[in-house]
Amino acid sequence: MPDTPMMFVTRADGVRLAYRHVPGRGPTLVFLPGYKSDMQGGKAQALAAWATEQGLAMLRLDYSGCGESDGAFEDGTLDIWRDDVLAVIAAANVGPLILIGSSMGGWLMLLVAEALGDQVTAMVGIAAAPDFTDWDFDAADRATIAANGRIERPSDYGYDPMLITQDFWQSGQSNLRLTGVVGIDCPVRLIHGQNDPDVPWETSLKLAAALRSSDVQTILLKDGNHRLSRDQDIALLIDVVGKLARSIRI
Q1: CB 100 within 8 A of CB 123
Q2: What pTM was estimated for this model as a whole?
Q3: In CATH, what class is 7-247?
Q4: pLDDT band at 160; cut points 50, 70, 90
């Protein structure tokens, strides 16, 4: 199946943000990639192909410094990438949304949902990683960030190294969400593998408890890893998203 045409929206500073939008029925599915990922990732493409077959609306995007978007990756922060998402959603002129956030995208989906309010009708987290600047960095890591303005770690996901800048870390610390009630009331589904070496599966339990919504379900896959990109993982994701999309009347 040929991919949908690439589109762009230009930020006030001239940076162009790339996105692909397929109009359709129901709430628009918006996929938010993980750290240093983009709209061409396996889960995003599989979900887009399924949505097209079903006639559902779908929006994929690249944060600045990622994929086909302009900018330098190391300039990105949670605040900047949240605003990138909001800019693309506004440019695509879409209505009700279902946000689907993978890993870091699961943190961003909380920030986007808070900004958009009732426009977000449901959310799906895939190994969602809110607050990882808080729980994934020890005192030595924080000292390195303070001294060098960055920290680099080996990566198992096709890019090396994993770079966290001081600006990104500080942005994360100012956007912690597991420290109190997350003021989101829509249905939320959280999928997490218990063999995830990067984001502890307990993070999804903490997020489920923190969300104000009473319609929250956590799905734990005992043999699932961080990426959750196996055929059975994709099938589960599509099933979860499909049920939510069918349940929402717009």
Answers
A1: yes
A2: 0.95
A3: alpha beta
A4: low
